């Protein structure tokens, strides 16, 4: 057993290792596959390579090279470290519009097959068996989320099964580590009937944590009409409805909702401002601005939000948008390098 601070201390060690040494070490491992396969398992890979990559301590290609040896990896915590650092929110937000997604899907699903088969069987047969395995519980959500995002049919089917069983008999609780993912895909793959079921569940819940979970799940709908209805309800219903969640922000951060929320703001920004405050408009600008990469897009977004914001907020908007643009350009460069690597290796 390792004390809680140990992983954090261990994760700092790679920062002291020169990039050239890391790269030369991996080149040697590539030459001697068995050694690489052994060292890439049991958490060595996750602690020493993927965590520092998140902060640009090593090249993304260097980290990706190590994933070649994970096809038989059965330690879910290793996969968690890989996925949480590789399949980031920025990548998920952008990848569907670029060349990377089909390449990443082909590459990762081949390597995820073994670990997915193990844990999907446990979920179907005896999810209680995991209740004392804290690390597995933490890692399972990311594994499930990534598999479904990559379109693994068994993951999508399992999501449908668990969601349907729960709606038919709510006492059949969805395993808590994957409940948020199941609710989201249940709504994304479902119709207005499933969405209304969640809305009714939300209205009858009293625990804030459960209400937040349901509010986020309802934003996963892929039906523009439902999402517009959701946002309309949020700004016209009682102030006590969705009091713990900013529905407009949640929808704007969703896969389909990001396109719907901007159009909704055109005609409803005053009501949104009254309901959630003008600071929420600044937050929405940051969310909607996740994809900007040119000065022209900055100007367009400034003009879009110009009449909505107070004067002191408008003065800081340009600098914030410039920061977002620079971050987006950095992410695009990283994505381009990942795509090039995947083309060579997928």
TrEMBL record:
Any one GO biological process: peptide catabolic process
Highest taxon above the source species: Eukaryota
Domain ERAP1-like C-terminal: 54-325
Record-linked InterPro entries: ERAP1-like_C_dom, Peptidase_M1_aminopeptidases
One GO CC term on file: extracellular space
Single GO molecular function: zinc ion binding
Family listed: Belongs to the peptidase M1 family.
Name of this chain's protein: ERAP1-like C-terminal domain-containing protein
Source organism (scientific name): Neovison vison (American mink)
The gene coding this protein: F8WBV0
């Amino acid at each position: 057993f390792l004390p809680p601070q140990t992983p954090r201390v261990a994760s700092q060690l790679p920062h002291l290792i020169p990039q050239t040494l890391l790269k030369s070490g991996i080149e040697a491992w590539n030459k001697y596959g068995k050694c690489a396969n052994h060292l890439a398992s049991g958490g060595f890979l996750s602690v020493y390579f993927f965590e520092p990559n998140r902060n640009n301590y090593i090249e993304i290609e260097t980290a990706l090279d190590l994933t070649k040896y994970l096809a038989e990896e059965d330690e879910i915590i290793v996969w968690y470290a890989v996925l949480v650092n590789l399949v980031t929110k920025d990548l998920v937000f952008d990848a569907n519009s670029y060349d990377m997604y089909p390449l990443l899907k082909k590459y990762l699903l081949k390597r995820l097959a073994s670990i997915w088969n193990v844990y999907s069987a446990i979920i179907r047969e005896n999810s209680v068996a995991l209740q004392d395995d804290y690390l597995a519980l933490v890692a399972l959500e990311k594994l499930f989320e990534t598999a479904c995002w990559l379109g693994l049919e068994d993951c999508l089917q399992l999501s449908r099964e668990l969601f349907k069983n729960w709606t038919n008999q709510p006492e059949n609780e969805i395993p808590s580590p994957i409940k948020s993912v199941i609710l989201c895909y249940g709504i994304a793959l479902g119709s207005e009937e499933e969405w209304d079921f969640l809305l009714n569940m939300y209205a009858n819940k009293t625990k804030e944590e459960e209400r937040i979970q349901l509010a986020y799940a309802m934003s996963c709908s892929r039906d523009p009409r439902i999402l517009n209805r959701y946002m309309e309800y949020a700004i016209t219903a009682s102030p006590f409805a969705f009091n713990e969640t900013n529905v407009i922000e949640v929808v704007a951060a969703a896969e389909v909702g990001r396109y719907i929320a901007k159009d909704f703001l055109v005609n409803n920004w005053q009501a949104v401002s009254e309901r959630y405050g003008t600071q929420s408009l600044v937050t929405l600008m940051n969310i909607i601005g996740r994809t900007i990469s040119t000065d022209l897009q900055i100007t367009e977004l400034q003009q879009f939000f110009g009449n909505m914001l107070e004067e002191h907020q408008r003065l800081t908007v340009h600098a914030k948008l410039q920061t977002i643009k620079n971050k987006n350009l950095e992410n695009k460069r990283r994505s381009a390098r990942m795509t090039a690597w995947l083309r060579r290796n997928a």
